Task: structure prediction
Amino acid sequence: MTSTPETGTPKDAPDTAPKAAEGAAAATAADTAPVRRTPHAALRYTALRLGVFAACFVVVAVLAYVGVLPEAIGRANPLWLLMLAMVVSAPLSLVLLRRQRDEMSVQIAERVDRAKQRLAANQSQEDGAA
Result:
């Protein structure tokens, strides 16, 4: 790799600057922190979401065992605890996993854009051949 004299950056380095035109429409005033790209953002978000749910299930089960929460509604003890854990974990993951969810949405949006570009290229090749 060689570096350019003006900037001192390698010539072979990929362009990491975000495209302002693409992100301008989607950006809001609340989104001030930059979103980092991670290779497995969807897998990471899913694992963390399951972790939040499991932690909430354990807390709900302990609270039901201790007597703070009712152990069951009728004979639906495991179902009651699962549903209560889902209701508690949903808003928690909405707040706690915002950064991971944003990373995942960026990754998915990039894949959709690449697929659209490939489709457009394939259609233009078919139009040229006809």
Summary: Residues 16-30 have pLDDT under 50 and may be disordered.
